[in-house]
Amino acid sequence: MSSDDEAHRGPACDYEVGDRRPPKHSQFKPGQSGNPKGRPKGSVNLRTRVTQQLRQMVTVTRNGRPVKMRKADLIALQIVDTAAKGNLKAVQLAVRLDDEASIAASNSSTEETFELPNRENLRFIANRLSGLLGWANKWSKPSKDGESAPLGVDDFIRLARLDFGVFAALMFPELHDGKQMVPAPYVNLMAEALMVVRDGDEKRLIFNLPPGHMKSLIVSVLFTAWLLGVEPAKRILCISYGDDLTRQLSRLTRRVMTSGLYRRIFPGTVLSKLAEDLLTTTKGGQRLATTVGGAVAGFRAELTIIDDPMQPDEVASELKKQSLRDWYSGVVEQRLIPGGAMIVVMHRLAPDDFTATLLEKGGWFHISLPLIAVQEITYTDRSDRDFGFAGRAIC
């Protein structure tokens, strides 16, 4: 140790100069800046320098021709080109950057043009509200002078938070290029039954409807999106028969939840992760999508939705049907938390199909609507409203 270091050890020699213990005379004094003159004028930090570099224009050759572009665009192009050649790391990076861009875009602004529901959808919404507010066939609210005033955009936004049916009617155009829903009576029945599940009055629900009646769109897409809006911490497991259907329903749900209209209805629900099979909110809510027989280990669901668990060409295979039954009882039921709810939506395939298996176990509320109701079919909701179908197509 030098004599200079010894001179600064103090009279009690209680301070040893060493690793991360510089001589006291060279240490910063309390309340004194290490750079009292501050940053020189005109200097920039590293982030600013990188941003400036990324914005610079460069000339590159693309398809044999010189093209001018920003360095940032060039980097993005190289990432996508490398990903397209099958480079796994580039694919993962491109997907992650796309997810982050989608999240930023969906969170940056919630303002967009909103078209009020047409007359058919107004009737549908009025019918939805009649059980709650006594507004049947009334499409206005009292104004300050006692006269009726038309419901405005903000009114529909608030109503969509309260009732899934209203939400479905408003969000339908988001997925159909602006075309509004044609609200058949069975849609009202499905909306009411799903509200009963959400309120906890029903824990096991089966929908049997023919193909082409929006059952997957209503249950697996719109209802899961609405539920995550109402309860951003909800954990939902969605199961379908194959990868293509599973991914399609996940993409549609993602499209709903990243729309400006959804953000206006549910500003408190923000997506933090947009993986193809897993949507995650900032509040910890999740929508996990998997196929029949797929991995669900570690995921505990508060709501499980089984949407068309078998393809029509599999129904003749007893092995396939038994495999589905075994996976359901050995895996799916075990992944549902105590008190959780389960919804099955499918069209009937055979007398001994998955619906028959569940009904045999008992405890399920069953809504079965054939394409044409040759006999009277009536369901009564909590407000004593009857939904009747007889001698006509359900739509």
Textual characterization of the structure:
With 395 residues, the chain is an alpha/beta fold. Among the domains are: 49-58 and 67-108, no CATH class; 194-393, P-loop containing nucleotide triphosphate hydrolases (Rossmann fold, 3-Layer(aba) Sandwich), CATH 3.40.50. It is built from 13 helices and 16 strands. An eight-stranded mixed beta sheet has the order 7-8-9-6-10-11-5-12. Strands 1-2 form a two-stranded antiparallel sheet. A two-stranded antiparallel sheet has the order 3-4. α6 (153-162) packs across α7 (164-171) and α7 (164-171) packs across α9. The radius of gyration is 30 Å and the shape is elongated. The N and C termini lie far apart (93 Å). The relative contact order is 0.10.
Sheet with most strands: 8 strands, mixed
Order of helices and strands: HHEEHHHEEHHHEHEHHEEEEHEHEEEEE
Which spans have pLDDT < 50 for at least 5 consecutive residues?
1-12, 132-140
Helix/strand/pairing category: alpha/beta
Strand content: 15-25%
CATH class of the domain at 194-393: Alpha Beta
Question: What overall form do the CA principal axes indicate?
Answer: elongated
Q: Give the termini distance in whole angstroms.
A: 93 Å
**Looking at this structure, what is the CATH superfamily of the domain at 194-393?**
P-loop containing nucleotide triphosphate hydrolases
Arrangement of strands in the largest sheet: 7-8-9-6-10-11-5-12
